[in-house]
Amino acid sequence: MAKELKELTSKDANYAQWYQDLVIKAGLAENSAVRGCMVIKPYGYAIWERMQRILDDKFKETGHENAYFPLLIPKSFLSREADHVEGFAKECAVVTHYRLKNAPDGSGVVVDPAARLEEELIIRPTSETIIWNTYKNWIQSYRDLPILVNQWANVMRWEMRTRLFLRTAEFLWQEGHTAHATREEAEEEAIKMQGVYADFAENYMAVPVIRGVKTASERFAGAVETYTIEAMMQDGKALQAGTSHFLGQNFGRAFDVTFIDRNGKTDYAWASSWGVSTRLVGALIMAHSDNNGLVLPPHLAPVQVVIIPIYRSAEQLAAISEKVDRIAARLRELGVRVKFDSDDTKKPGWKFAEYELKGVPVRLAMGGRDLENDTVEIMRRDTLEKETRPCAGLEEYVRDLLEEIQSGIFRKALDHRARRTVRVDTYDEFKERIEEGLFIMAHWDGTPETEERVKNETKATIRCIPLDTADAEPGRCMVTGRPSARRVLFARAY
Amino acid sequence: MAKELKELTSKDANYAQWYQDLVIKAGLAENSAVRGCMVIKPYGYAIWERMQRILDDKFKETGHENAYFPLLIPKSFLSREADHVEGFAKECAVVTHYRLKNAPDGSGVVVDPAARLEEELIIRPTSETIIWNTYKNWIQSYRDLPILVNQWANVMRWEMRTRLFLRTAEFLWQEGHTAHATREEAEEEAIKMQGVYADFAENYMAVPVIRGVKTASERFAGAVETYTIEAMMQDGKALQAGTSHFLGQNFGRAFDVTFIDRNGKTDYAWASSWGVSTRLVGALIMAHSDNNGLVLPPHLAPVQVVIIPIYRSAEQLAAISEKVDRIAARLRELGVRVKFDSDDTKKPGWKFAEYELKGVPVRLAMGGRDLENDTVEIMRRDTLEKETRPCAGLEEYVRDLLEEIQSGIFRKALDHRARRTVRVDTYDEFKERIEEGLFIMAHWDGTPETEERVKNETKATIRCIPLDTADAEPGRCMVTGRPSARRVLFARAY
Predict the structure, then answer these.
(1) Helix or strand run (H / E) with residue B320
(2) Other C-beta atoms within 10 Å of A470: how many?
(3) Does ipTM top 0.90?
(4) Residue ranges of domains in chain B, CATH in brackets
(5) Which of B53, B60, B66, B68 to mutate to test the interface with A (most CBs of A within 10 A)?
(6) How far is A24 from chain B (nearest CA, A)?
(7) From the centroid of its chain, how far is CA A239?
(8) Are B189 and B180 in contact (CB under 8 A)?
(9) Out of B74, B91, B93, whose CB is closest to A34?
(10) Pfam families given for it (chains A, B) (predicted)?
(11) Are A379 and A362 in contact (CB under 8 A)?
(12) Residues 251 to 310 of B: which have CB under 8 A from any A CB?
């Protein structure tokens, strides 16, 4: 087994360190010279590209178009929406000058004080303000609505404590920004996109999610309602995997975006916004991977099947290659992403470890005996199970196996979550059990004070008020004993 | 004809205004609240997305992978390569602070002076420096080479005079950054990517280009050689449509990126970089469009065929729709991007003008008489020619017509360039004829002084020293009479 692989910290010994090691050793990302900003390496970016392509198709299927808005936002825009400025204007990158000049002492370049901007510009932490300032010119009448626009972009939030993919100062994301003529339509849009995200998480990432709404204190700054999908990581902590916001008329009002409705009446436009980011790559890793490396769901794996030849002579390699080329061609016809690794400078054992580390879902190996018997050895990455099968019908078998792995990974994550989700009725029990790394369904009196107290005392937050009705019976708050309409989801979170 | 269309300035009256009007009225882009930064609207972005998809496929076919590097670059990085800093460090957006705070007087937010960065950060004008600083950790041995990486990103250069798509402070682009073990390989890479760009320009954008190398004074800051493709716009001016740079060991040296070669010797890595940007959308518009609006080459048109029903009753529309649905389905099977516009609120005449403005290559119209005769009216956007054809075999006809339009547009641009390219031997004739808007092939003595003089006196620059041998015979410089190895391409440029 390769040296690097051996050095992967064990998940149980130190989950955080295991994650960090894995991201680095699998070649997904690394820290850069700029504090808090990561370099996304080719293999990590290939996963993000797969995510992008699938999500982009889904956005277009649901009627959205892409556009692009400026990176920089005039400082004053942020102050236009009162809640928004509190949430976003504080920790952000501020552009104050537009020119450097040679240092008088010849030591490189310095800021030219004469090139100070009249108004400072902020690198977008999110684009509601600049976009709604633009929509003002696009919207006059109900005939101009809805506007269904998405943008793929980089954004920046000056985070103090960062972690590759999960929390970085700069990250990549998509942000949808829609404008509507009615409240109902805007709310429907927000709920629809939460559904798109949930579908993507479950059917592509193989990560089961709980759909719900955020409490007032966890809402997006400027939103009337925030819809979320919450996933459980292997350590029992929650990760917010995507959010979708019903913004009411808050941005319409802040940027004076009015329209004439069907009845000739003037009203402010209604808004939604929604986004997912490169954080999803972190979620993908933490949801499925193991001590041997990544476990990638086939629907997102850049390489789904790797084929490795095991040979003693050039003739043997030629014979194997001939066979493999046919198998690979047929797999590609079936839509499978295949790589034949015949690199001469690396030993099969090294390759086995490498592709395990990289989470390739299926490995095929063909050696001298396989050649004689017309067979191939198949290993599935999720269970590490091996079997030897005849070459006849292999391609269809592998295609089906990929689907089986996809659903197997999902089922495993679902079982894991089921085992680690409990109902708790007293605050004492809650404080004890939250240490185990659980999703806890408990009653809450609906006040921000109680929510805050639980957070301060246990580091657990209300991840969401779930949309499903399984825990919708009324009860009494575990902390205050006051009436509660339904149980909500508490967990510690990334 | 629609009101907006009539208001398009005529190309001959004012080419610059015609361009500006067209970009706005066709819904491609508009200026934003941030000086010099544009909003790329959905239709403009759809064209850019088509370009991206095609180029990205070509980059991958030639062995490149995508990655992502930080937006912000430490100020000191720019000074590491002496020429580079001169070219790029001057007009750029400088981040000096990382926090805002509430203004003491309650009037919004102000920069928090306590949150000053120790070292200022620059929004990338191009990423050689941050990338080579990263490559230092990726490269130890010749086995780690080549590195063939591309990134799709936004960049920023604080331009004083901006123009939608052609020159904006922020723009979108791709930048390839490769590292090699030998000089030959790095040079080959730069030339290969110039070829990829030329192929894209000619076969997708339908824009003929001249391949060449830049003179020393027009080279990329930090390059040993800059390869360029130069296109002629309809007004006879040149537009640099893509560049590819052989960077020698300049960045390897500046960032101390060394490797052990096959013989155990340590050497600096060799580099290339190459990029094209949203500027190409501007080139596309200026190369082909006319006084009726855009003319888009079918290979890049977001919608290739629009079908418009002309009807007097709901029954007639239903009958047309049934027929059109079959035609549209069959066209999609043939890989054609079709839109059926049955929007009830717009008249056919309005739609005709709208899709002409938007440059949809083929328009099909079906009315009552067509229904009776089983025919359809076809108009091609490039020539505005109309014909009526039977529905039988229509789809194959349209598919082939799209290819004919593609090559027709290219041929037209090629003829235009041929007519406006001349050889000139005296500086007097040069000064006269450059006013006509021409590509002028003339002899030059190879000195930056002569080049500068021509630029100052005529606003014409040497666009490139062409790679082809048509004008490779020696002669005498038109300005100084000194010996010249070959004619070079002079033109005024965007």
Answers:
(1) helix B314-333
(2) 9
(3) yes
(4) 6-288 (3.30.930.10), 305-409 (3.40.50.800), 421-491 (3.30.110.30)
(5) B68
(6) 12
(7) 9
(8) yes
(9) B74
(10) HGTP_anticodon, ProRS-C_1, tRNA-synt_2b
(11) yes
(12) none
